[in-house]
Design brief:
Structural class: alpha/beta
Oligomer: single chain
Largest sheet: 7 strands, mixed
Bound molecules: S-adenosylmethionine
CATH topology of one domain: Rossmann fold
Shape: globular
Number of helices: 6
CATH superfamily of one domain: Vaccinia Virus protein VP39
């Protein structure tokens, strides 16, 4: 499924209404058709502002939350970005239009395999997809200018904080998986870590180890 000019216009209008106003974020989201990341039964809901089921029992996040997270991450053109939780690949595709290089990790091999194929077909050559437990980050590629986690942990994982550059930003949901969580922005400053609470969100949990498929 791909979007019509009207669907695209409405999609972007809704994002603005939800507080996604940063022009670079909107520009990147305009380049990525969410309909290509949603398959099967839910295809006709691809442009609705709601999370939708994807393979391996996971979800593609709500577009306005993707927009708010991308905006808070404030990615710069020379940045090296780590995403934990590839899922459908939608968020990584948006980041690829903003950053120099994106590393994205998921614990489900099926999701990383399918995303990799999709990135290839879309000509998004600055994304590296890795299967594994992303809560340990990617020590061999660290440090990162930006880190985004798209699954909820009770606290920001220590290895990810350690792999963030000085001056770097990490955006992630924190809280218990069965309750409303908070989206937070962590900035690494010379004086330590600065925490800012952005809004309530609900994400699938960050789970240890590799998935079954
Ligand atoms: N960013 C995704 C997108 O654009 O479609 C949505 C991600 S979905 C809400 C959360 C993802 O986090 C799932 O695909 C899940 O497999 C993954 N995940 C959960 N725990 C993980 C971990 N420890 N390491 C890597 N991925 C993990």
């Amino acid at each position: 499924m791909s979007w019509s000019p009207e669907q695209k216009m409405q999609f972007l209008f809704h994002l603005r209404q939800k507080g996604v106003t940063n022009p670079r974020t909107l520009g990147a989201m305009e380049k990525v058709d969410r309909g290509l990341f949603v398959k099967g039964h839910f295809e006709d809901r691809a442009y609705d502002d709601m999370p939708l089921p994807i393979a391996s029992g996971q979800t593609i996040s709500q577009p306005s939350v993707v927009g708010l997270m991308t905006q808070a991450l404030n990615v710069q053109p020379r940045d090296k970005v780590l995403e934990v939780g590839t899922g459908s690949g939608y968020q990584a595709a948006i980041l690829s239009h903003l950053a120099r290089r994106v590393y994205t990790v998921d614990r489900h091999r099926r999701l990383t395999r399918e995303s990799e194929k999709l990135f290839e077909s879309l000509g998004l050559h600055n994304i590296t997809v890795i299967s594994g437990d992303g809560s340990f980050g990617l020590p061999e590629q660290a440090p990162f200018d930006r880190i985004i986690v798209t699954a909820a942990a009770e606290d920001p994982p220590g290895p990810l904080l350690a792999q963030l550059k000085d001056g770097g930003i990490m955006v992630l949901p924190v809280g218990q998986s069965d309750a409303v969580q908070s989206l937070i922005k962590v900035t690494k400053t010379p004086d330590g870590l600065d925490y800012e609470e952005l809004c309530p969100v609900r994400f699938v949990p960050l789970i240890e180890g590799l998935g079954s498929e």
